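Q: What does the predicted 3D structure of Ammonia permease look like?
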Amino acid sequence: MADPVPPPSDPWSAISPTDTLFILLCTVLCWPIIPAVGLGYSGYSTRKSGLASFYPALLAISVCSIQWWLVGYSLAYSEGSSVIGDLRYAAHRGVLMEAVGTIPALLFSQFQLVFEATVCAIAVGGACERGRLLPLVPFIFLWSTFIYCPLAHMVWAENGFLAQLGALDFAGGTPVHICSGATATALSLYLSHPLPHRFSRSRRSSTRTPSHITLHRPHNTLSQLLALLIIWGSWLAFDAGTTLSLNFKSVSALATTNLCAAAGASTWAAITYIETRKWSLDSTFLGAISGLVLITPSAGFIDLTTSFFFGVAGALICRQALRFKSTDFARRIKWVDCGDTFATHCVGGFVGTIATGLFARKEVAAYDGVTEIDGGVFFDGNVRQLWVQIVEALIGFLWAFVLSYVFIAVIDCVPELEVLATDEDIVAGMDESQMGESLYEAQWAGEEDYHPFGKGNVSLD
């Protein structure tokens, strides 16, 4: 006897086991990118702040997971208004019984959760080496709810303002990179320039001095290496999985992402070699990241050849942007770009989002057999798309930067939630004051003479 055919009203009748398995694998493969971002920040930090620079990524995973289950998914992907969703799916009510395309809605939710947590991990890195960890907990919840979720809704929800405007953003040029770069910049600038004394507890404190941090090289190359390997691989799953089904567009997105990252890594590393006659892991890391950033909004809209030139351009532009932090002007305005987030994610996000409007192609977008777009300027003559992309990028930056600065300033006014660490803690290293643990010798303070057998005094019955 044949299995009964489910009624058309049953959402599970639309579920494809192949697509579900594909997105499930992409979700699992993408998850390591969150702690890998922490590894990257840890590698860039001084050795006495390495663990404290990694830990915000774990806070991002934890707080974002709770926020996403409670209200985040609903605010990002329920109908609501053109700016933010409603609370229809609060606490994931009814999500299990619905489908998104050919996959379960719950799986779609978890895949998108990884996006939010990854963006958050990048964003809160702006507080590395100077910011206390406790204030990041309420900040992450506020950021996720009022910054990321509205941007995700505006760009990706069917009734979102920017989606209705016609913005092309395949996997997050604005909600991911411009948003994270703007937030990291806002955090860093606030730590350098808190509110006046009568409001800011950080400014009011006699033990805290908002100041510039002397530039230094990355202190843990192994952390950078591991971060690079994980982020590069996970990003392939990010962009391939964004199609939400296994089709030719998934393969195309994966291929363009890899080529763009390779072009960026090769370009940046080659320039460094020409200048110094030595190869540099740091240059390779930053070049790959710049390529991955540029391809994120365009992976589903451009071909392989275009993606190669995106990677080259991304490395050249982001490398030039990185020079700003070494200028005397940057020192005078107390500019601190921890992990080079502004130069890669913010600048790269702007360039990638705008370049998508120039080089997007109708035929590439249609590789999934469903998507229809008007294309970009050069291949399809759609000049309007360029202006739409500029509007999207500007809205994303201003939304994230302004609200991030406001949220961290409000938190800094709350007793016990001073954002800036004390001068003594910054000098000693954030591991000692924030963690009580370290990746280095401080972990074993007081146990220098430890011996597993009590210095040889072993007694056997």
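A (community wiki): The structure tokens above were generated from the sequence. The longest strand covers residues 99-100. Strands lie at 99-100, 103-104.
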